[in-house]
């Protein structure tokens, strides 16, 4: 990952809108304004990181876990380390009760503005919708090992309540930590069916969440103009948009279809759609029968 794009991802991690906002929930679900304000209040720092990204790059390079979710957490930690409003108290605090691991608290932070101690759960997710996309259960992760309803249930019923568990309270008390509230930071993108309508968003979807679409392999060629090119996103490019410097090898629709059919790329495949040298959107290419598998 280039230095410049790493900072683009950092800005996206902080400034992008959330996927879900649940009013009346026991835990906090920050809205888009919250994240925009965080970015705006630290705009000078982000500009400095663009000029000197070495510290952020070093933090990311030091992580053995190269999964996207871990990168997302690391970028947030880099931001919070320099934040005037928030201070990290604990990060990735594992809770072990005897021989049993109860879970892990992603972040415990002090909000200097509200004087609260907060437990934050962070996640970055990419889901493809099929059928009735108003229902959480019809949104699937690319590998189908994850589903929006399962993730939401885990966040609401387990992760955000973890700090209230007796064994967790014992650990926190020993560290002189008293949690005032929990919050969810859930970012990512929802990929809608090609023929979906604007009102077919999942329940409690944030009004300006990041959204795109998926397309079947057999529909790819006639879904785009002939001059459109595609760049496979393997290992990077899932968060912030890529700029023209990344597009070393681009494919026409017929070329990427041939690469997929010959085994060069596996489906589902996230690609950057490039028009006139710029990324216009990211889409998932899926098997024609992916929704029935």
As a percent range, the share of helical residues equals: 25-40%
- Major β-sheet, in short? 10 strands, mixed
Distance between the termini: 33 Å
SSE-based structural type: alpha/beta
Basic shape:
globular
Low-confidence stretches: none
Task: Give structural notes.
With 293 residues, this protein is α/β, with parallel strands linked by helices. Helices cover 29% and strands 27% of the residues. It is built from 9 helices and 10 strands. Strands 1, 2, 3, 4, 5, 6, 7, 8, 9 and 10 form a 10-stranded mixed beta sheet that branches. The longest helix is centred in the N-terminal third of the chain and has 14 residues, at 68-81. The chain is globular.
Index terms:
293 residues, alpha/beta, 10-stranded mixed sheet, 9 helices, 10 strands
SSE layout:
Elements: H1 3-15, E1 28-29, H2 32-41, H3 43-51, H4 54-61, H5 68-81, E2 86-97, E3 100-111, E4 116-129, E5 139-140, H6 148-157, H7 166-174, E6 181-192, E7 211-216, H8 220-223, E8 229-232, H9 253-261, E9 269-275, E10 278-286
Parallel strand pairs: 1-6, 4-6, 6-7, 7-10
Antiparallel strand pairs: 2-3, 3-4, 4-5, 8-9, 9-10
